[in-house]
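Recall the central idea of this unit: under ordinary conditions, the amino acid sequence of a chain determines the structure it adopts. In this exercise we apply that idea directly, starting from the sequence alone.
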Amino acid sequence: MVNNQPDDYNEELEKLEIKLLLDGLYAWYGYDYRNYAYSSIRRRVWHRIHAEKLSSITGLLEKILHDPACLRRLMADFSINVTEMFRDPLFFLTFREQVVPMLRTYPSVRIWLAGCSTGEEVYSMAILLQEEGIYDKTKIYATDINADVLKVAKSGRYSLNQMRKYTNHYFQAGGNESLSDYYSVHGEGVVFNNDLRKNIVFAQHNLVTDKSFNEFHAILCRNVLIYFDKSLQERVHRLFYESLGSLGVLGLGDKEALGYTDIANRYEEIAYNQKLYKKVK
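Accordingly, the structure predicted from this sequence is:
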């Protein structure tokens, strides 16, 4: 329920206005949010309406069509940027123990982190691969639709306050060094070492509209698909399937699954209760 709804609130009219807003975004700017989960989009649309001191969805559409700054603010609202280093440590521990031995058998390794947000999981993966001795032969492709969060990811700069929490995650994920060895402290922030960034390619990529750009040994897209409706999830899963090489590994978030898709039988689960799957067909 959205706060401050008018007395004449009409749910069907609201749905029409949101449809027109998303159609306008796509037709005029090429941003396609038409198949994102409706409840999530609705919540963010009303947040932006109140923040802009507007009174209607139609008013927001008018403003974003004529005010690029308002458009950027709405795009930031639509972007899902909740992340942290070694998030769900058991996932990374399983990747270290079950997936890395497979990656060692290849002369070179390509990994795609789709929806990388501000990059904490990208550096987590780089650290893990460096400790396992295969980072030098690996190229990590870190992509996101949001250019602003990619700038943060490229910089490798994060809050010092988060490092204690991240250090605990690091050890739970099988880390065998000291996390502080991988960054330097600058005031209230930290900057991750350049040697972690040397094999990372940061690039803008839209999972909704863009196609595959390489063949990968592993793809991680964690806690992104939960914001898509079923038809869009199916489309993105097809993109990932076509982007994985034979025996490639797909990693999902803990609330995401393959079971409902039409390609579920083309994967095998790598480890019980961890969302890691190997392409077998």
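The chain has two domains: 11-78, 89-279.
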